[in-house]
Write a structure and sequence with these properties.
The complex is a heterodimer of chains A (297) and B (326). Chain A is mostly helical. Chain A has 15 helices and no strands. The chains are: A mainly alpha (297), B mainly alpha (326).
Amino acid sequence: MKSDKNYNKIKLSKLIIHLVLILFTLFCVVPIILVVIISVMREKEIFTTGYTFFPKELTLAAYKQIFLNPKQLLTSYSITFLTTLVGTIVGLILTTSMGYVISRKDYRYRKFFSFYIFFTMLFNGGLVPTYIMIVSWFKMKDTFFALLFPYLCMPFYVILMRSFLQTIPSALIESAKIDGARELRIFIQIILPLSKPAIATVGLFIAFNYWNDWFQSMTYTTKINLFSLQYLLVSIMKNIEFLNSSAGRLMTGSTVDLPQYSARMAMCVMAAGPMLFIFPFFQKYFIKGLTIGSIKG
Amino acid sequence: MLNRIAKSTNLTKRTQDSIKKNKRIIKRRRAAGTLELTMLALPSILFVFVFNYVPLYGLILPFKNYNIGLGLLKSPWAGLENFEFLLTSDVLWTITRNTVFMNALFFTFNTIFSVTLALLLFELTKKFVKFYQTVFFFPYFMSWVIVSYIVAGFLESERGVLNKFLEIFGIAEIQWYNDPKYWPFILVTVYVWKMAGYGAVIYYAGLIGIDREYYESSLIDGASKLQQVRYISIPLITPLIIVVNLMAIGRIFYGDFGLFYNVPKDIPFLYPATDVIDTYVYRALRQLGDIGMSSAAGLYQSVCGFILIFFTNLVVKKINPDNALF
């Protein structure tokens, strides 16, 4: 009798837990769904009734409009894709090698270089000196490199990598050394295959940084053919703000052909979609890598 | 140690020699290992030096009248001129207040939400946890740009869904983008939406790491679920909560530029609530082109941040040395 009551109580509490979590799930997902719905709404309906979760009619007109004149979108896609690809590969090489070296307990300058990396997370020169360095010393304004360099070796990911690699037993390295293997070989043939979760995690982080970047484009480029996908969205939003302001109306006569409301959201879907699609494939490694990195750090 | 053994057991000179030789080889090998490891890290070391250490020269920028033609060293000294505007207007107070206050709200609410979510997930089986974790992570991977469009979908005055929703309850249309007073609330909601899933994964991992024996023995003592949460789960993940938040406190003078710039659409009406040090530095640099003032604000930020992290670390070191950052 008593255990039966207990059983019911556990069932009820499980139900409540699921209810709360489903509520939070909706909180996470509903805003994303709204964007998708707006992107397939008829422009006319948006005009008369505004955005809604339950449109009367669905249409792919916004997507068609974008693909009718896809030149700018394709340019921005290729900029984003190229920075993501090159940035992730080079970034992983820099991050993993640095993280590995300072994870080695027998490395002589381990303490020094750990602090060398860690310090940059706490204290830095800020935006202005970096800007001057990239623009007037390196002359990298309006070049692909200005979009690429700033995220290549982020201290936070080096530390994350180190925390993960510290969990690899040092006996493995010792025995490889007794067999006469050099450090580079140990790193490539023993360490790298063992650290797939960490590489997937950090790689995904770096890739997202590049994919989601608009700041470097905004700061270092003026040419529209170097605008990343995200910055293209920023500038569309800005143009709409500007045109909606009275100064904008006066200056342009408000007859400028801009993507309409549904087309804006369609562009969001196309900008965020690929990464959301990729994430579940990496999720297994990702959560494992994140877990180990954060707990041991 | 080896020497002493060799001497005490009266080994022959030859054995002693060979021990010495072995030691030398080990030493040489270790030196070679150090060199090889350093070489392996060298590209990153140089890269970090150029992009993170060289910009530290900027610490003298605010004291100069920087002239691009003359360069850093030949530009004339400006004394404290560049700080004058910051100190005499109330800009400094506004941006500092917004940065610190909003960050404090962010990590308070985010910690509450993510710890609660983690505690709830902890009661479920792996299969469900995986599903919820995946979904909670979706917002984390949206850029702030996309988020700003989502927020616009809710808040835009003529079209947004939120006003229409409020209309059902008889609340008149609200001009969200014209009035700063709503923005602390909006920004906190947006922040929790994007970040709570990430925190939940980390705290959930912390809970998984707790020794099951604590729970088993508490069951024998007749503890209820809530008592377990209060007396086992929460105390045992507190160190993790401290570590996570220590980093956040150390960066309390750094506003999330993407959030504060994009989500309020950089609308000047909203600056009283949404302008943080980072957005101010950016505007001063890119819109006003005032390198002096911009770098002065930047220096102010770096110094405040550094002092803060130093003292936080000192306090943590006193309470629990294991959790100290350095």
